[in-house]
Design a protein that fits this description.
The structure is a homodimer. The first copy, chain A, is an alpha/beta fold. Helix content of chain A is 26%, strand content 30%. Chain A starts with 5 loop residues before the first strand and ends in a 14-residue tail after the last strand. Chains A and B meet through β2, β3, β5, α6 and α8 of A and β2, β3, β5, α6 and α8 of B.
Chain lengths: 281, 281
């Protein structure tokens, strides 16, 4: 059985209602997305304050520690306890984290959003990542997945102002996480994958956010060969996707898409649409 | 005459072209936004690496230092020199920056995007900000400004994947900056305002990005009483806007908008649209 740290099960209501006046002078009640500060303490040391929608705070914190390379294995973590009363998450390790001081001291800060924080040299790591070359995603499965994403009952539909990420196996959505920042949504999925011992090699990562350098790096680090976005991409997102050989699709809306890199894994349907099997690991 | 540090005048081409395949199997050449790392050195000390579109890098760096409260006055800065060959910006102060070590040591990291970096306690500062109560923005001027924004020849139209911010006086756009991250775009405008000794008190800040806590804080810090966004808002963005008394309009698209806070400064047109004077300081 997979090891799991002791976890709280805290979350925040995703939306609150506020008053507004529209262009016709009508007073309305509008749902807006929640946004709450959550300060992470690792063995009582304050690391960072994230502003989050608070849907999966324990997974977010674990994913943050994972993606920032501050914690290497889930087995190092004894407990993750979120307390919204004080806006804090206490992470306890079994035996302390090796090198935490030096990892924090030598932090480099890169940015995708543009001012996200990344510890250590992620760029150097990217060359050591090998994504599986033999996975396939058929166009028919891709379209069914997009349709599932579209129909998902999301905070975005109710309130906007959030980014959504999904982890999918074929057309099946395994996780769907929204947050006020797209990095948080990615990190929460990385944390949930850790908790459930889910591998990335046969998965598809969908995001509403742009394909910047950081998005590609995180996806590659999770070992996921397919990256799909409703939005566009940047030059460095493109360059990194090519370097790491990920299959990257942008502008994924309705029937339209643009396949930018990793063409060999994407199987276009012949004109007579055939049913397609989901990818398998 | 206003003091200006010695500045390089470096910028990057905003878009590059890459190949893609669309849903009809057609090979296309697609313009995508540039994204370049720029590492800031303040008196030879490495502070941060920003990923940027690189349109106004000198203003971006100055605005970053201003908004992070690392530099209090432009007069402290002798030179800002960007060198894209090495992806670095060297900022030189005349006499060193007081307390730089302690400011960096006690950094708190808050997030809007959600993992942006802010030094010092910006939240405490917000209560000391007083925005002018007597400025007015008429609905007619507002609509003309939105129209000017819409017609602006932007990188977004060509390549997507960037956020845009504008500083306006009435309907007139003074600056329009785009960047891969919305924080960078805001910071670049803050830097340009510093360089040109432009006050915020009679200005309107427009952003394509969401109205999160950090966006409201930065706008208030620049002393700007009007904040307009094409996107939605978050709970904390709303709470801060109320607290600081900013006039905040969201969902600004076409003829539609939602006025959330600071109603007293917004003058709705009677049904017979009258011409309206721009706000004045």
């Amino acid at each position: 059985m997979t090891y799991r740290p002791r976890l709280s099960s805290a979350f925040r209501p995703p939306t609150i209602e506020v008053d507004s006046v529209n262009e016709r002078g009508e007073r309305l009640t509008t749902a807006i997305a929640g946004e709450y500060p959550l300060t992470i303490y690792l063995d009582k040391r304050e690391l960072v304050t994230l502003m989050t929608l608070g849907q999966r705070p324990e997974a977010l914190v674990l994913g943050y520690l994972r993606n920032q390379r501050l914690v290497r294995s889930l087995a190092e973590i004894e407990a993750v306890q979120v307390d919204w009363e004080v806006g804090a998450c206490a992470v306890t390790s079994f035996a302390g984290i090796d090198d935490l001081d030096s990892r924090l001291a030598t932090r480099t800060v890169t940015t995708g959003c543009g001012q996200g924080t990344v510890f250590g040299d992620l760029m150097a790591e990217i060359d050591s990542i090998e994504l599986p070359a033999d996975r396939r995603l058929s166009e028919a499965t891709y379209y069914r997945l997009l349709d599932n994403v579209r129909r998902y009952d999301s905070v975005y539909k109710a309130a906007g102002a959030v980014h959504g990420c999904a982890l999918a196996r074929g057309e099946e959505i395994l996780y769907f996480v929204e947050d006020v920042g797209r990095h948080n949504a990615v990190d929460a999925i990385a944390g949930q994958m850790w908790l459930d011992a889910v591998e990335g090699c046969d998965k598809i990562f969908y995001t509403t956010g742009r394909l910047t350098s950081e998005m590609v790096i995180k996806c590659a680090q999770m070992g996921i060969p397919f990256l799909v976005s409703r939005s566009g991409l940047t030059q460095m997102g493109h360059a990194l996707a090519r370097r790491v050989g990920i299959t990257m699709i942008g502008r994924a809306t309705g029937k339209h898409y643009l396949l930018f890199t990793g063409e060999h894994r994407f199987v276009r349907s012949p004109r007579s649409e055939r049913a397609a099997a989901p990818v398998s690991c």
